[in-house]
Amino acid sequence: MMKKNTLIKYLFSAFLILAVYSCSGDSENTNYRMSSGVHTVETSEMIITVGSTMQLNVLRKVGEEQLSFIKNGNEQHYAVINGTAVKGFNIDENETKWLDINNEFGPGKRLQLTGSTSGPDNSEILKILYIDFYEQFPNAAVINSEYINKNSTHGLIIGGEVSNKFLLDASLANDNSKPNDFWILQGGSYYSRPDWILQVTDTFSYSNYQGRDMENEITGGGLPVLDVWNKEIGFFIGSINDKPIPISLPAKTDENGVLNISIEYDKVNTPFETEPYKSIPTVIGVHSGDFYDGLTTYSKLMERKGFEMMKNNPDDPVYDAIWCAWGFGPNFTREQMIDMIPLLKEMNYKVVTVDYGWFYKQGDFSPRDDTFPNGDKSMKEFVKIFHDNGFKIKLWIVWNLAGPVLAEEHPEWLARDIDGNPYLLSNQWGDSYYLCPAVKEVQEFHRELTSKYIGEWGFDGFKEDQSFMNVVSECYAEAHGHASPYDALAAHPNLSKIVMDETLKHKPDAILEVCPCGAFPSFYKMPYYNQPISSDFNTAWQIRHRGKVIKALMGPYAAYYGDHAERHYSEMNLPSMIGVGGIPGTMFVKKPEDNVEFLRVKYPGYLSPERRKHFDKWFGLYNEYKLGNGAYVNLYDLAYDKPETHVIDKDGILYYSFFADKWSGNIQFRGLDEKEYKIIDYVNGKELGRIKGSSTLNLKFENYLFVKAIPVGS
Q1: Rounded to an integer, what distance in angstroms lies between the CA atom of residue 89 and that of residue 262?
Q2: Residue 377 burial (CB count, 10 A)
Q3: What CA–CA distance (Å, rounded) separates 523 from 225?
Q4: Residue 151 phi, psi dihedral angles, 5° rounding
Q5: Does residue 18 have a pLDDT over 50?
Q6: C-beta atoms surrounding 624 within 10 Å
Q7: Buried b / exposed e along 703-713 (16+ C-beta atoms within 10 A)
């Protein structure tokens, strides 16, 4: 049975009668009141209360109910000063302010609270807490803290800060739930490639570090957001800093089964005597259903800060199915690729990718003379052959790396560790080094390379690939003049912008694919490419839920590429790509012996007659309906609604994709108008029944069922 927090319920009733004062500004849907030491702000979608020591509760409004799974009494925002977590800020009611604001997020209201507490060495620390509410974002609040050393005590250092530290207990919203009855989306990038959305367990623990991953030094970065939800309420926290910084967003189940989440920045190390310290800006918010609406709100907020995603036209080649040469492996030949052209044309592929191996050393990107003997001339001739046959062609690349040759030519460009050594990145493909993206010469070098590959050679875009592409390590090179060793991390996304700008200058319909090898992609790079990817998926489930995540962040029309269908091959891979509104891809070869051995063992790429039949069916279905350029519609919760359902709106028709090992029962068709519809299984070309409006239909299937709802008489 649902239940409200008893104390909050009592206070809400009391506020209506005993409010000391109540104010509303230009936004009639955002109101503030204070009584008995509790400050309350209410919007059309949520309520935030602040107690006498600045502890917050957040409630989602559901009809006449207000639901929350946040435990009371915890302090969410504090600084770590001289190794001590400074908390217990008592609000000075004389300093409370309720203000009109208008900034990049639009018009709104600000609740400004000031409190003080004792700090190290008999200091007195002031905290000013700013909670901002915006008319266009009624389900979210932007939060900042400012700390002041009131008596200028000497020797204080702020070593870190904690923001949005919440203790979540699902039983507060539902008596029948365990404390950790949640699902969570977390944006950390891990080399082990875990699911991006996970069910919280008794032993759940992830750090979600946003710098270079300290565990394996290969991945890192990602999305600085946590979204937690159950059947009753969704809740998210995130950083809205305008540059990537090395924060963590830990999520951990404690001994009581309560989920602890926060945003932690432990690399501050800022002298704290006369100058105030301002925290990183953060956001909290509520929603219904799974993570989709929370991530969409986050993305729209960040768009106001300049992170606007690229827009595609429906007929852009970014939506065309893809054949990639990776099936041949890194030692492919020019002749092997050209020999594929007749079959690719026969099967109606339009985009081809030159994958890893067109160069000798990663980071030294000049053509191999055994494959392209005349260098630039051979490469231009090769590209022209594919263009003359009607193909767009992408080039594999990984930016911000120096191979042995470039490192020797320009050692001054390399990022360096605290001992002055360059960062060595070793893998099965050889050694390379991080460049420092904050160096202007490095930025210009990327502009020149892009101009060469796109403008001179004629490529139609890039496949940017590798697990360490999200971030760079801190740079301590004295000659670079960094204010902070994390200047390199902050400057890294700008390289992607430089590449995007230069590419589009030559090819306005270019394809910019980014593949961080199964790791969560860096949000800060997302505005600078137009083809995200499921990225080395381990399961068909990963294809589908990653697709929904990407479309929540990059927009419902995002050109989400499903990657090679051969990876962990299953006949569910292609349906999963197409059903979620993704773009199918393959790396097949014509002869078994052409499939390089180390790939053949795990991901056989030979196009056998049986597989050809399967591919013809699904790639043909994609080319017929092209759901990749339709709009993803968020109507079903991936965790709690059964069967798993995805919906694409294409030209006003809703296409439903259902997934389950085996299903027999009623399915509700959400999102339809109040008129009669024919439900058509468009894979097999038969009508399954008729419904009126968003009603139910009894259906039976195994693995998947794809249908479209057609108005009767249309």
Answers
A1: 19
A2: 12
A3: 10
A4: -105, 20
A5: no
A6: 9
A7: bbbbbbbbeee
Residue of 499, 534, 466 lying closest to 220 (CA atoms): 466
Helix 292-304 / helix 540-554 crossing angle, nearest 10 deg: 40
Q: Who contacts 444 (Cβ-Cβ below 8 Å, separation ≥6)?
A: none
Strand-pair category, 97-103 with 106-118: antiparallel
For residue 191, which amino acid is it?
Y
**Contact by Cβ (8 Å): 550, 530:** no
Phi-psi sector, 538: left (phi>0), alpha (psi -120 to 50), beta: alpha
The one-letter amino acid at 502 = E
Torsion on CA atoms 36, 41, 42, 48, rounded to nearest 10: -90
- HEC profile for 552-578? HHHCCCCCCEEEECCCCCCCCHHHHHH
Render 382-448 in DSSP notation, one character per residue: HHHHHHHTT-EEEEEE--SEE-HHHHHH-GGGB-B-TTSPBPEEEETTEEEEEB-TTSHHHHHHHHH
The distance of Cα 133 from the centroid of its chain, to the nearest Å, equals 24
Tell me whether residue 211 is exposed, middle or buried, using C-beta atoms within 10 angstroms of its C-beta: 0 to 12, 13 to 18, 19 or more: buried
Q: Tokens 């269908």, residue? A: 565
CB 576 within 8 A of CB 540: yes
Q: In this predicted model, what pLDDT tens digit does every residue of 129-154 receive, in sequence order?
A: 999 999 999 999 999 999 999 999 99
Q: Which residues contact 151 (CB under 8 A, 6 or more apart)?
A: 123, 124
pTM here is 0.95
> Quick one: average pLDDT of 350-373?
95
Structure tokens at 109: 């209201």
Return the minimum-mean-pLDDT range out of 472-476, 613-617, 642-646, 661-665. 472-476
Q: Is the pLDDT confidence value at 313 over 60?
A: yes
Half-sphere exposure of 482 (CA within 13 A, CB side): 22
Q: What is the end-to-end Cα distance of the chain in Å, rounded?
A: 44
Distance of CA 713 to the CA centre of its chain: 41
Retrieve residue 453's tokens. Answer: 């590959």
